[in-house]
Design brief:
The chain is of the alpha+beta class and 282 residues long. The chain has helices at residues 3-13, 67-70, 73-81, 102-111, 166-169, 202-217, 223-238, 246-258, 263-276, and strands at residues 18-22, 26-27, 84-87, 94-99, 116-119, 124-129, 135-139, 142-145, 151-152, 162-163.
Length: 282
């Protein structure tokens, strides 16, 4: 029995669906009957499981925990000829944050909860319990591998697997459009439509800004998204009557920058919120 086959059977026994990799860290090509998806592919290609043909076809979707398939003649040949073992993280209810360099690792250590870590050739895989959509290049040097994707099996890793945090899920969520960049400072007053003022007293507005500051300050993850949503909430309530001033926005920007946001990102988030609400001059 080859080492790859032993690894695959061990993974399958632990509920992790493996598949063989050939040179170049890519799955084996489809068999002649399935070449160019002539067979129509597996239904929807949403879940792992072997093709009806005997070969390990259809990339990540071939991954299986069935030892009868893994040890079948066609698969044994693939394990023997293959260059490595991969697995389908989503099929094991896992998400892999693939950190490709030292800068990406430093970012993860500063922004993501500690979890099981596996060293790679150039960086690290951080494993979390829970599945999500996969995406490449969610930020410099960072890929997400979970559903409908495969990851190389390198080692069990070290550390306790943490539950998939919102901070990772947020990486695949497209942020608001970045159409027009505003200046780095904002002039007062900031109201656009000059509609009827709903504020009975200045206390109403000040309380709203205080609550917004608190929301940003208390954010534990997905800070980018929290800042944008908070700016959006402030502007939806206070942005049409002309009462917001530079003093108010400075308080919000200060709270955001205390959480690690750059002045540029604060300005972008504010501009995007204005655009979303139709308050932009633009």
């Amino acid at each position: 029995m080859s080492a790859h086959l032993r690894t695959a059977l061990d993974l399958a026994a632990h509920g992790i669906p493996p598949l063989p990799l050939r040179e170049g860290k890519v799955p084996f090509g489809n068999c002649p009957n399935c070449a160019k998806n002539a067979c129509g592919g597996r239904p929807n290609m949403k879940t792992p499981g072997p093709c009806t043909c005997p070969a390990p076809c259809h990339a990540w979707a071939a991954a299986t925990t069935d030892p009868g398939v893994i040890g079948s003649p066609a698969w044994v040949r693939a394990w023997r000829e293959g260059a490595g073992v991969a697995y389908h993280p989503g099929g094991a209810d896992l998400t892999v944050v693939d950190l490709d360099n030292a800068e990406a690792i430093a970012w993860a250590r500063a922004n993501l909860p500690a979890t099981r870590t596996v060293p790679t050739t150039r960086g690290e895989h951080w494993l979390y319990q829970g599945a999500m959509q996969s995406a490449n290049a969610v930020r410099p040097g960072v890929d997400i591998k979970s559903l409908m994707a495969y990851a190389r099996w390198l080692a069990p890793g070290t550390g306790v697997i943490a539950v998939l945090p919102d901070a990772v899920r947020a990486l695949t969520v497209k942020g608001p459009p970045t159409a027009v960049r505003a200046p780095q400072t904002l002039s007062a007053p900031l109201g656009i439509d000059r509609g009827e003022c709903p504020h009975r007293t200045p206390t109403y507005l000040d309380r709203g800004i205080t609550m917004a500051e608190q929301r940003i300050t208390e954010a534990r993850e997905a800070v980018h998204a929290t800042v944008y949503r908070t700016f959006l909430a402030v502007l939806s309530t206070h942005g049409r009557c002309g009462c917001l001033t530079e003093t108010h926005t400075a308080r919000l920007f200060t709270a955001a920058q205390a959480k690690g946001e750059s002045p540029r990102h604060c300005t972008d988030a504010w501009t995007n919120a204005l655009t979303t609400l139709g308050l932009s001059h633009g």
